[in-house]
Design goal:
- The chain has 191 residues and is mostly helical.
- Strands 1-2 form a two-stranded parallel sheet.
- The longest helix is centred in the middle third of the chain and has 42 residues.
- It is elongated and about 80 Å long.
């Protein structure tokens, strides 16, 4: 996106990045963008599915921006990169906007279909694992056996070693170490 803007002399005012799925529009950064956008502004997205993956909602959002006088450019759809408002020929302008809308709807349909396909495959995979009685091993494997951690962590309690040094010895990341520590403390409180 920044390369495109640099090449085309477009100054980026704000960059909004969501670290959440585009499945819906209830995303903090997106909502912040939507509140700040003004008529005459331009939104640039790299791909249609970066805006949203649900076809109906995506088209609804694009209509919202159109009605508000906000231009949306999607880098994967070259026709959205052309400003048709400056065209003199109204028939040509209408035809290009129609082509643009068809392409946007097609890309939104692809994004929606991909989302549904991914969800269906995930559901089928989970059902198959459960049917084979393999559900217990689903997810990320444990960093280490909890009983082994408990034995090692007792050294911290006894003052033999500092928590940071044990973390390094066990080759654990800080979040993993403290997640195990919390589990240990909860078990001790319930014992």
């Amino acid at each position: 996106m920044t390369d495109y803007c640099n090449v085309n002399g477009i100054a980026l005012v704000d960059i909004f990045t969501d670290q959440q799925t585009g499945k819906n529009f209830d995303r903090p950064e997106y909502q912040f963008l939507k509140k700040r956008i003004l008529p005459g502004d331009c939104i640039i997205c790299t791909e249609t599915d970066r805006l949203g993956r649900d076809k109906t909602s995506t088209l609804k959002e694009l209509q919202y921006y159109k009605e508000k006088g906000v231009r949306v450019m999607i880098l994967e759809i070259p026709t959205t990169l052309i400003d048709y408002s400056k065209m003199d020929n109204s028939l040509a302008k209408m035809m290009m906007e129609t082509i643009n809308n068809l392409l946007i709807e097609m890309y939104a349909t692809f994004a929606h279909a991909e989302m549904e396909k991914r969800e269906r495959r995930q559901t089928e995979g989970i059902a198959a694992k459960k049917a084979r009685n393999e559900w217990d091993d689903y997810g990320r494997p444990a960093a280490m056996d909890f009983d082994e951690f408990t034995e090692q962590y007792k050294r911290v309690i006894d003052g033999e070693i500092k928590p940071f040094n044990l973390m390094r010895q066990l080759n654990m990341t800080k979040p993993t170490f403290y997640r195990y520590k919390k589990r240990f403390e909860e078990r001790m409180m319930n014992a």
